[in-house]
Amino acid sequence: METVTRIAADTDTDTGTAPRRTPRPRADALRNRERIVTAAREMFVEFGPDVPLDEVARRAGVGNATLYRNFPDRAALTHEVVLSVTSRTTDRADEAAAEEGDPFAALSRFVHAAADERVGALCPMLSGGFDKDHPELLAERRRLEEAVEGLVARAMSAGRLRTDIAVGDVLVGLSQLTRPLPGTACLDIDRFTHRHIQLFLDGLEAPARSELPGTAATLEVLRRRP
Amino acid sequence: METVTRIAADTDTDTGTAPRRTPRPRADALRNRERIVTAAREMFVEFGPDVPLDEVARRAGVGNATLYRNFPDRAALTHEVVLSVTSRTTDRADEAAAEEGDPFAALSRFVHAAADERVGALCPMLSGGFDKDHPELLAERRRLEEAVEGLVARAMSAGRLRTDIAVGDVLVGLSQLTRPLPGTACLDIDRFTHRHIQLFLDGLEAPARSELPGTAATLEVLRRRP
Amino acid sequence: METVTRIAADTDTDTGTAPRRTPRPRADALRNRERIVTAAREMFVEFGPDVPLDEVARRAGVGNATLYRNFPDRAALTHEVVLSVTSRTTDRADEAAAEEGDPFAALSRFVHAAADERVGALCPMLSGGFDKDHPELLAERRRLEEAVEGLVARAMSAGRLRTDIAVGDVLVGLSQLTRPLPGTACLDIDRFTHRHIQLFLDGLEAPARSELPGTAATLEVLRRRP
Amino acid sequence: METVTRIAADTDTDTGTAPRRTPRPRADALRNRERIVTAAREMFVEFGPDVPLDEVARRAGVGNATLYRNFPDRAALTHEVVLSVTSRTTDRADEAAAEEGDPFAALSRFVHAAADERVGALCPMLSGGFDKDHPELLAERRRLEEAVEGLVARAMSAGRLRTDIAVGDVLVGLSQLTRPLPGTACLDIDRFTHRHIQLFLDGLEAPARSELPGTAATLEVLRRRP
DNA sequence: TATGAATGAGATTTCATTCAT
DNA sequence: CATGAATGAAATCTCATTCAT
């Protein structure tokens, strides 16, 4: 269920033909690709989606042409980053479902973990310049929605969540609230982010919560975050 | 209590000769200035803070140089837009305080009205490229904070708001949740915005709200929105 | 023999028609024209011939449109400045001729006075963008050349000037050596200007140094240049 | 002793892995850089220091962005041109010192050669828009001053130069007299340039004209200036 | 294949000149 | 007639993308 790195059509089935002394160089290429995506994810968060690709390449420690070899244009890189973040976020949802007993605690844990994965950074990327309906992306998004669906359904059927809440509400609210501000100002905001998504979460909680059970569970979850 | 248009340095210090009552021709100029700010506000919302200024000028119906005459650089224009939105938002807060009897309804009305004023559009502009600590801006921000402070305090002392809520929580949460996505995608999101801020608002409500009184009031408020 | 301010076609012969209560406003117009030319002369010297005309208008204390009413384009203003400087320089030559007894002293006085009139500022203006052969200008230049011709001839026939010197040598050398550097750096240079033109002048002086040893060597050098 | 092309920060500090002997591909880049500097030098001479950089790029036969890659702004290009001209002028001084026997001939040769190198083109560039005190530039200027110092000292101790002459007099006079006029007019002037610097040089020559009658008169004149 | 360099298209900003009051 | 404002054309500089080594 972990994130899998995809390399287009690189099935490595050429071992049967020529002796090819060097099967190794692929390692470097793969590593480069990873580093580019990582750098892009970080810099999209830090500087927004318009960050110069040359800068991304520089941070990744590769030449710009290497970036373009791997991702023919900005759309392709954005696509990969969105895919990557979506995938990692799904992983967090699965972890939360698997490891938290309390249904609301599971949801809370997921939400805070997703914030740490910078789901919010996806928002501005969704705005333009790449194909939001690419099949690969749709599939990954579906995976995420299903995972969150599970968390929501469980919390709801345990009577812990308002019944008028949809998965989309959680995901969109979460994304918006964790959207980083480009530039250094983001740090000030960052200190409040987890507090705000918790407030949002509180709004999702089922009423007659005079005891506020979710909040206690959530605080516990927050305490365990890295 | 309404927004006041500021013209830089209109000191009229004629050194004692003729009275020179009217630097009259400004009628057009003022109108142009207004139109530029309006166009900028709209386009910052629609396309983000990096929208080409030439496009802003085009939408305002003036030549690009007219824009630059009024606002020497992007920072100056951004400054004015932030000032304008802040001011208008404060006006909404004052209206809500004056015209709504129920304290929570007043807060709700403000929050939804602020969303309509596109407070969220301020977020990405706050990230960089202009002086966030300009005195004029600080003053206006203070005015807004005071107005919202009033709304929050009233709702809180009526026992309608959780007591651990600060003005900043409202403003930041509100801003983030209403932050527009550049590009056409924003429209899809927009349909949910008021729903999401209502959810957030619900999270701020005082517990033992088994009857959910605020929600009823809010729905009423929402119904009356234009 | 003093500089006369010229206003095109402003013969003021309209006193015979309508009663026209106000024959006065012309005074202001004339004054404005003078102030523009003065400001332009100063700023051409200080910032070079590309100084923004709006700045010239500002220094003159008039609106830019007033400048353009008097001088339809930069060429027209340049023309007037060149005319003005030429005229004033001629005045200096006439004064020197009239008031100095010693022929070489007269020439010297003229040269240094011309430097103070900023003849050098004319050089870059001569380079382009206006009609160097305008009859009005030709006439004024002729006046200057004649005046300097007189100074040179007198010094030469008194045996005080090398006989291979032409008026052009004096004027061009003088102009080049006094050409100001735009920007503040000119001040450093300025301190040396009079020294340098004096050195140049010394080169023009008739020898008692009949042997001129360096010149022979130099001619040989020049002959070998590519 | 010849001009050395400088490449910024080519420190080659490979951190110990493979030897990476050849950052080879620079052959073209270097050539481009040279061509840009050459084009800039020529066009600064021909059109003045405000010539559009796009035009410089065009003359160099490269895209404008290539120019900006090599020289981030006009100041950087100006810096390089000043450096280059200074360096080449120093080379001319060294050559003259080495190859001319007669001290005054050496100085003369240098002066005329410097004119051919267009030292005068440096003048308007020195006025603004770049750091005149950059260490690299100071060093190169020092080299030039030392070289000319040598020529002057030699001529002086051979009794061929007035003893009140400083290196600065030579360099400034030379620069001013050879300063080109932007625009086509420069050609007319150009024909006289060598003649004029020769006249200037003559002024520097030691008298056998011990009496210097004009100078006394001139000093009197200067004393009376306002 | 990976790289640094090159490129053209576009964004920002300035300025000479014209217009409306 | 004088003015401030408006304008488009041009200059500076940036960046996504392509090329050559």
UniProtKB/TrEMBL annotation, chains A, B, C, D:
Residues 30-89 form the HTH tetR-type domain. Residues 52-71 bind DNA. It comes from Streptomyces sp. 900116325. Keywords: DNA-binding, Transcription, Transcription regulation. The keyword DNA-binding applies. Residues 1-20 have a biased composition (Low complexity). It comes from the Bacteria. The keyword Transcription regulation applies. This is TetR/AcrR family transcriptional regulator. Residues 1-28 are annotated as: Disordered. Pfam families: TetR_C_43, TetR_N. InterPro entries: Homeodomain-like_sf (IPR009057), HTH-type_TetR-like_transc_reg (IPR050109), HTH_TetR (IPR001647), Tet_transcr_reg_TetR-rel_C_sf (IPR036271), TetR_SbtR-like_C (IPR049445).
